[in-house]
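Collaborator request, handled under Task 6.
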Amino acid sequence: MAGEGAFRFPVEAEAAGRRLDLFLGERLPSVSRSFAAELIASGRVLVDGRPRKPAYRLKAGQCVSGSLPPPRPAVFRPEPIALDVLYEDEHLIVICKPPGMVVHPAPGHDSGTLVHALLHRCPTLEALRGELRPGIVHRLDKDTSGALVAAKDAASLERLAAQFKSRSVEKRYLALAHGVPAAAQGTVRLPIGRDPVDRKKMSVRSRKARPAETGWRLRRSWAGAASLLELRLITGRTHQIRVHLAAVGHPVVGDPVYGRRRAAKEAAGGLGATLAAAPRQMLHAWRLSFDHPETGERLSFVCPPPPDMAGLIARLDAASDPAPAAGCPA
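Structure tokens returned to the collaborator:
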């Protein structure tokens, strides 16, 4: 199944026993589980060259291959979706994106995206309908929550995009990670590119990698099993934080692509079940700072962790004594 939209994923030992539709949805972040099931049912997905049902349980060493159908022409219809707005004026809007929301339309996500919500809330975006992603300056993965800025006019879109390109935008994240780093802070400098085996993943072992740098600071830890890290993106590669933390042995809790399923089971102090219950990758865009595209004023916004992440931190606190007690930023 070579060609446009083709994919090929080896089934690693940690994915053994995983349902085919769940496995595919995790490996194709832009594809919903329901759309993955449709692809499988239509025969576009093969396991070791044979079609299978969505509920088929995978075995280690198998190969899942297939292809995505050609994208349909984008149709952006305004939808009345509630947004958690941190700031808004005539030029831009800053929101707290909830986990589970896709930023822009993609295969399997023809509605319910941030773009659809913005078109309903911000009529001026109508003028940017010619764009593939009207108003979108940067994005967060579907299951990453946090602060995100969107432009309301072409001039603001261009100026904000220039700031992201020049790296003058400051992006700080919070992540729950497996294990506890040996130091209190540090910087990960490992180049990132496409994984040499799984082309849908990113890797520090890529033959065509680009420089990537992530600063981090330890905020809290729990019985050696997990830690709350504050991270600063110095570069902005795809999946950068998730790839860097996995590379240094502290993958993001709940990460279905770069995490290790056995890491939660091996957690000390009875915390394994708590960590394994994470509903998604525990990564949150906490603080976003940039220059206003019209006035030049430096703006900074903080988006508190959403209930699922705050709740997991509370359960970790209840199960052990956190250290150090720096608290979770509000």
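The cover message to the collaborator said: "The CA atoms of residues 286 and 303 lie 5 Å apart. The radius of gyration is 20 Å. Please let us know whether this matches your experimental observations."
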